[in-house]
Amino acid sequence: MNDVFVSKAASANKIRLLAEWVRTKFSIHENQDFDVIRFIELDLPRIFPGLQTHIEADEKMGLARAFISADPLGLVVSESIYEGASNGCMFSAEIILHEVGHLFLHHKYAALGLNSASGPYEERIKEAGLAHSAEWQATIFALCFLYPFSTLKKVQIASEVSRSYKISQSQANRVLKHINRLKLRQNSTDTATDKIWLCTITGSLPINNKHNSTSKLRSQLLLFFGKIRTTRNFRRSPAASHGDDMFGHGNTA
Q1: What is the domain count for the chain?
Q2: Which of 28, 37, 138, 206 is the most exposed, fewest CB within 10 Å of its CB?
């Protein structure tokens, strides 16, 4: 049986192209502050019709910080991570974008009904290498999305990253390591193959083309999305049952 938590191998450079495609599609410029809450609540449903964000109390989430529910399709986020992302915490944003990475890279596996990325999963992928790991791929997506390579490719020291993104020195070291990995891959990557891979991924997305049919709720969100978070009345849903999660950690971004 194929391991549905391991998609075909995807290099860091391929995932970078996907992250850049998503940023471009929603006109997210590299020099502007990124509002991850607006992104998941208003933008993502245009690509994944019916996707809803559900916020659950930390004690109900247990060790999970966020996960994707398969039926109904939803992004379930712990209250503390949602609040952190709302207040501009990059760590919280990375946790959420890790799950978004699962949506873009692994959504086609949801219907297969395997609910846990631990136990048998770890046994099946231990010899496969990182590029085949769904968790690794989702983490690389989050890093590529939050810390664009084109902005940081000339950065030499972690303190520059720390100042630019207001993150800790340890997190900046991790980001710089990621950027350096991408630099090393630039000369060895096959651009044509990478672009074919990107077209395959984006062509498989269930994009909702009815952009003009803005719902009343979305209109209200657009109107009040500035200083007033309409979602502070947290939506609770049965989708937060861990038995329905598609890619379930969220505790490693």
Answers
A1: 1
A2: 206
